[in-house]
């Protein structure tokens, strides 16, 4: 797949998975838009390293992906038509037995692991359709297929993300 000159938006930019994906995409020729909740100063070194290594543009937006208004603000601040590749790599795992799981923790896990990817997909999919090119990559987990233990909200959200990915695939097969 030719990635030279494409722009990739990567959520979870400050995390282990997101940072590796962002670096790999930049090295493959993409400009990168990193999104995460951590302050810009914390990821400054990663941004500078990716720029130096890849010679690509790297932008960073601090954004609480649980907050839909924050997501929409990111898209107001950038040209959403510039997003060719969306990588939903942000995630969180909370360990709780179902009887101990608070509504707030449930809402935050579902918000970050499932609702945020849904909102982001909605923001880019029409533009990708109009361009006739786009890629959406959702990072899920084997636990979305094989449930175990006391990570109820994580399993539910990752199972939902797999379902969302399947629906998205069906949609893409019918438009491209």
TrEMBL record:
Its EC number is 1.1.1.100. It catalyses: a (3R)-hydroxyacyl-[ACP] + NADP(+) = a 3-oxoacyl-[ACP] + NADPH + H(+). It comes from the Eukaryota. InterPro entries: NAD(P)-bd_dom_sf, SDR, SDR_fam. One of its GO terms (molecular function) is 3-oxoacyl-[acyl-carrier-protein] reductase (NADPH) activity. Gene3D superfamilies: NAD(P)-binding Rossmann-like Domain. It is an enzyme of class 1 (oxidoreductase). Coiled coil: none annotated. Pfam families: adh_short. Belongs to the short-chain dehydrogenases/reductases (SDR) family. This is 3-oxoacyl-[acyl-carrier-protein] reductase.
